[in-house]
Design a protein that fits this description.
The chain has helices at residues 3-20, 87-102, 126-137, 153-166, 196-210, 224-236, 258-265, 280-291, 306-312, 337-350, 363-381, 387-394, 455-458, and strands at 70-77, 106-108, 111-121, 146-148, 170-173, 188-190, 215-221, 243-250, 271-275, 296-299, 320-323, 423-430, 435-444. It is built from 13 helices and 13 strands.
Length: 460
């Protein structure tokens, strides 16, 4: 990791502190992580027990308890531009945190804490994400307890060295990248989004069962996110009669994929892996329809929201995907008490959010809500109000359930398994009805992500 960078930042901070004398704008009563003590704790879990996380080289001491009664989280995610739709994730988690605060807060080791957060818009630009997080966390890591739900694979990769060196938790990263299993970065962990290689495995298994000699064409984004789909699918079809006959990439953040789709449609493929995200995903479906291409189609799990599938309209009919959460649009869950509680919580606490119109049927709000629900469970299970104890709790989740998860879905992590989203159901979109429905039984690949993933993707 780039420790020289951190030492440089701390040196600059020290010079600034000398010039500024004893003045400090930071309120130490805010419960921001309490990093004013000597950096580098011993190898205990912050609650007195043994820790699996090496803290020897930490730039801040992760065993220092929160001061005050507030846990401060910070985040960076798209809030404007073509990728601004991702902001709805934050509406979900903000609403859940508001609910918890209104009910008295979250209890850790016998004391209650309120959860506050601060965020910034990065427009899905990894460089802006890094700038935002460095400002929000502070050069010494003392301005926030943890980073929560940063959107994007490249975005999280761009901040993992900075946060890892300071030992500031970066939790529930909003991406299914398998890189979150890299043991070199114990302060970073993903969310309930299924690892992208499990998506690839699920589509390959579906084709083996239903179209065993399929010829597949793939659209992917030209970054780590897209590479994971491609390499994961290549691994998944090894030893089968399925062929990946064409792959086209599009620039990060672009929604223009018509030329790539013309090429893919002309490849002779009879199956299509749509690895596009945000507007590129429905654009690809529309282009496929325009080309008159008849192919069994899979869409990225990042594409199953009402907003994106609504843009695709009839072009999205019958597409396949996977999820571990119930679709708020599906009338089957209309009377579900947990779904009702979700609707009521968001309406009560975050009907207004960054000037955006509320659409409770948008599945990514439910996704954000679920991440907050699981994070609060982990906080309650932490043995102490410290960064290390909280990180240990998240890395040792034992079968958590979530109110909006499909029946039978549980979330588990462990010393050799950093991936939460390993149980899921296949779903298929009904364009006329405007929602996804489950097909088949619950699929559990608990603890198998590393075995189904090329090692170089995890250690990237």
């Amino acid at each position: 990791m780039k420790r020289s960078r951190i030492r440089g930042l701390l040196a600059v901070l020290a010079v600034f502190a000398l010039l500024a004398g004893a003045c400090s704008s930071r309120d130490d009563s805010s419960g921001d992580g309490g990093d004013d003590t000597e950096a580098g704790g011993d190898n205990e879990d912050g609650g007195g027990g043994a820790s699996s996380i090496d803290t020897e080289d930490c730039g801040s001491d992760p065993t220092v308890p929160i001061e005050g009664d507030t846990i401060k989280l910070v985040s960076s995610y798209p809030q404007s531009g073509l990728t601004g739709a991702f902001a709805e994730i934050a509406r979900g988690w903000a609403a859940y945190f508001d609910k918890v605060n209104a009910e008295g807060g979250v209890e850790i080791d016998g004391k209650s804490y309120q959860i506050e957060f601060e965020d910034a818009d990065d427009e899905y630009n990894p460089q802006q994400t890094a700038a935002n997080i460095e400002e929000l966390v502070g050069a010494d890591g003392g301005d926030a307890f943890a980073v929560f739900s940063v959107v994007g694979t490249a975005n999280n990769i761009n901040i993992r060295d900075f946060l890892g060196e300071l030992c500031v938790p970066n939790v529930f990263a909003a991406t299914g990248s398998v890189a979150w299993g890299n043991p070199e970065y114990p302060w970073l962990i993903g969310s309930t989004l299924s690892p992208y290689t499990l998506e690839a495995q699920a589509f390959a298994t579906y084709l083996e069962d239903n179209q065993p000699d399929a010829k597949v064409a793939m659209l992917r984004q030209s970054d780590e996110f897209g590479a994971t789909y491609e390499e994961g699918f290549r691994r998944a079809i090894e030893g089968t009669d399925i062929e990946l006959v064409a792959v086209e990439a599009y620039p990060v953040g672009s929604d223009e994929v018509s030329s790539q789709m013309t090429t893919l449609a002309g490849s002779g493929a009879d199956a299509f892996f749509n690895g596009g995200t945000l507007l590129a995903c429905p654009s690809a479906l529309t282009a496929k329809q325009t080309e008159g291409w008849d192919a069994t189609t899979w869409v990225s799990g990042t594409c199953i929201s009402k907003t994106l599938m609504g843009i695709a309209g009839a072009a999205g009919d019958d597409v396949l995907s996977m999820t571990n959460l119930k679709d708020p649009q599906n009338p089957e869950y209309g009377d579900d008490p947990d779904m009702q509680a979700f609707f009521e919580t968001v309406e009560e606490h975050r009907s207004e959010f960054k000037g955006r119109e509320l659409d409770l049927d948008n599945a990514i709000i439910a996704y954000g809500y679920t991440q907050a629900e699981l994070f609060v469970q982990a906080l309650q299970d932490a043995e102490a109000p410290t960064r290390l104890a909280v990180m240990e709790a998240i890395r040792n989740i034992d079968g958590y359930e979530a109110s909006l998860a499909h029946e039978g879905v549980t979330f588990t992590t462990g010393p050799d398994d950093a991936f939460m989203g390993e149980s899921f159901v296949l779903v298929q979109y009904d364009a006329a009805a405007g929602h996804f429905s489950e097909i088949g039984d619950l699929i559990k690949l608990e603890g198998q992500t590393a075995d189904l993933t090329p090692e170089e993707l995890i250690t990237a």
